[in-house]
Amino acid sequence: MAPHSPGTDQIDTLLWIGFVAAAIVIVAINAALIYAVRKNRAKRGVQPTPASGSRRVQFRVGAALTVFAAAIFVVSLVFTGKARETPATGSAGLAAAKTEPLTIKATGQQWLWRYDYPNGSFSYYKLVVPVDTAVKLELLSTDVVHTWNVPDLSGKRDAVPGKTNKVIFRADDEGTYDGESATLSGQAYAAMRTAVEVVSPQAYEDFLEQQKADIETAQDRVVGLIENGEVP
Amino acid sequence: MSEKPRPELVVDGFPGRKRPRWVELATSPDHKDIGRILIGGSLGFLFIALVEMLLMRLQLAIPENTFLSPVAFNRMLSDYGATAVFLFAIPLALGFFYYVAPLQIGARGTALPRLGQIGMSLYAAGATVLYAGFLFTPSEAGVNPLAPLSELAFLSNNGVDAWATATGLSTLGFVFLAIDLLTTLRNMRAPGMAWRRVPVFSWAASVCCWLLLVIGPVLLAALTMLMIDRNYDGIFFADGSGGAPLLWQHLSWIFFSGAYVLILIFAFGAIAEIIATFSAKPLFNRGVVMGSLAAIAVLGTLAWMQNMMTAPIGIGWMYFAMLMSLALIVPFGLIVFNLIATMLGGTLHMRAPLLFALGAISSISIGLGAEIEHSMVAAAWQLKNTTDATAATHFALVGGAVFGGFAALHFWFPKMTGRTMGESLARISFWTMAVGIVLAFVPLFFAGAEQGQVIDAYKFFDGTGVNAYNLIASIGTLILAAGIVMTLVNAISSRVNGPEAGHDPWGGESLEWFALSPPEPHNFDVLPDVRSAQPMRDIRDALAHRNSRAELPARESQPVA
């Protein structure tokens, strides 16, 4: 996992902070356990010393734990807030998405993702987006719960039937980013993958035109076949 | 007056045929028999869960493996989850509570023995239904069968029905057992045993039973709705007709989050008893530990949406879930602090129960530590449903239910059978399990957090950088399973071959050690007045005092040199 968007940059930092917090907890507890065991093994003739704790110690430990938990909470709030911000479309991005993010519909279905672009064309499996452009994916599902998951570009989001969820990201670098669905959705769940191709705005426009033309050609051909009676 | 006794005073009864031992056991309303069945049954299902887990790990040992078909894998996964949670972990905890808690509080039985018996039978019925599912077809919907995948439209065979019936029957059984045990704990404590003097394990039993009374009916409601959806054209979880798939997620996660902390509360209750006993010291700050156990039950259940961080719910709910989960740091931290403080200045006897108890704390600390990241909202967006979550959950729950459960097993085995478990095999088993759990789940942390490998998938692809991690995890699972099987074998063979133990082999502090090993059906002939949180210590002190007084005249009569 390598962050390629402002949102995942923030998440990556938060992940490292969380890792350090978890490591502190794990190391502290296990070190204390090992220390307590090594120091207090039963020896012949040694009697256990009676408990000598005071309420003060308990309060101090409780207060320290509360501060630790509160610190993690606040840090998470700050970074989650930053990760949720809608990034601005940069100068290299799509001119049409300067004010409003480019909105694309992503529909999960057993076991494919379908992407519907603003100009009416669509693609399966592969999502093409312009670089340096704020993109808003509206997540829908036609059947069961799916999770849209391209870790390099954004955090996960569930597509739940009957609800609309959204993912907002801005891809900073051109390239292809792989993703795989992350909620068990039936037999071919493991094969339900997707790829996001980040290209220049010009290439994106060309792709849309080409895709639209291809779809129209294909549809015309089908209509022609039906009219000629070659298919029922 | 006749010479013969009056007929109604004849107590011999008909010379009827003797019923076989297993019939006696299965129909006995004695809490010790029910407890033994629950413990034995759940340990058996631990073995079955292990086999299922090993088969799945075998499939995931190498990329794009074809050992299990996708459908077979999903069935294995669904039955593994139900077995581990409903047939192993919860009944194991309840079995120990049910056996030990009435003895600890000085009760001669439970308050509603027939209800407890029905509860145990419902658990057995649930287990039968789940595995009878193999005769037709098991569920394919996963550990938590999220609607709408679990709806008839997507899984039209009987698998999900069998799953829902099985988990529903056992959950109803758990609720019955909880009602019985709660009534016992509230009404049948020995004279003088105020709540502040109740042993920590019995207090944990009380907390867990309250918890089951809350979360059990929630799951039962959800399962009922699912069954209506599937069999009577219901629309509870169907979108587009007024139903809501998210409703299932809320209800089921309330149950599963509660069950997660239930297992940890059970483990910490047992660990606290063991550490105090083997340090030869009273538990440090009992009151704080007891309060923390109750706080964990409340906060842990309220944190259910920690499992729904990627679902279409408002960001405010995610922050709420984060607050509740992170608040758990305080009670868990206080418990671990007080357990370690109990050991300081103690004289630790490193016997098998203590070894497993310390292993449990260590394993749970890794699981809960990793869970911190899953509670931080934006971090959870990346980590959720990756193998990082699998590893965190397994460190916490294998730590709680297997290491903690084995600690309880080694600790109370002498009480149940009159024999201790073989010590050297216990040690070998412990270290094998310790190596196994690290090898099995640490690589999954890396595969999930670093490479984003997703959970529940029947295969992973070559070239995604997770090949080595998965191979090590599969080998580690095999080692872990070998260690667990050693303890199961040890338990079976020690029932007849173990070294004989006295009635109080560890020098325990609570009243179960006052009973014989194994206890008589009525538990106690006489009960002492409870004057402190360590009644057995008081009894020993009183005996020592009496003996020293008895010695006095003898000493005086000795000739002065």
List keywords for this structure.
heterodimer; A: 232 residues; alpha+beta; Immunoglobulin-like; 2 domains; five-stranded mixed beta sheet; three-stranded mixed beta sheet; 10 strands; 39% helix; elongated; B: 561 residues; mainly alpha; Cytochrome C Oxidase, Chain A; disordered C terminus
Descriptive report:
Chain A has 232 residues and is of the alpha+beta class. Chain A has two domains: 6-38 and 55-84, no CATH class; 95-227, Sandwich (Immunoglobulin-like). Chain A has three helices and ten strands. In chain A, strand 6 and strand 7 form a beta hairpin. In chain A, helix 1 (6-39) runs antiparallel to helix 2 (55-84). Chain A is elongated and about 100 Å long. Chain B is an all-alpha fold and 561 residues long. Chain B has a single domain (25-522), classed as Cytochrome C Oxidase, Chain A. Chain B contains 16 helices and no strands. Classes of the chains: A alpha+beta (232), B mainly alpha (561).
| Residue share in β-strands of chain B | under 5%
The radius of gyration computed from the alpha-carbon positions of chain A, rounded to a whole number of angstroms, is: 27 Å
Largest sheet of chain B: none
Please bin the fraction of helical residues of chain B. 55-70%
Secondary-structure-based class of chain B equals mainly alpha
CATH architect. name of the largest domain in chain A: Sandwich
What's the Cα radius of gyration of chain B? 25 Å
CATH class of chain B equals: Mainly Alpha
> Would you identify the CATH architecture of chain B?
Up-down Bundle
**Unreliable stretches of chain B:** 554-561
Beta-strand percent range of chain A: 15-25%
CATH fold assignment of the largest domain in chain A? Immunoglobulin-like
Total discrete domains of chain A: 2
Brief rundown of the structure:
The complex is a heterodimer of chains A (232) and B (561). Chain A has 232 residues and is of the alpha+beta class. Chain A has two domains: 63 residues, no CATH class; 133 residues, Immunoglobulin-like (Sandwich).
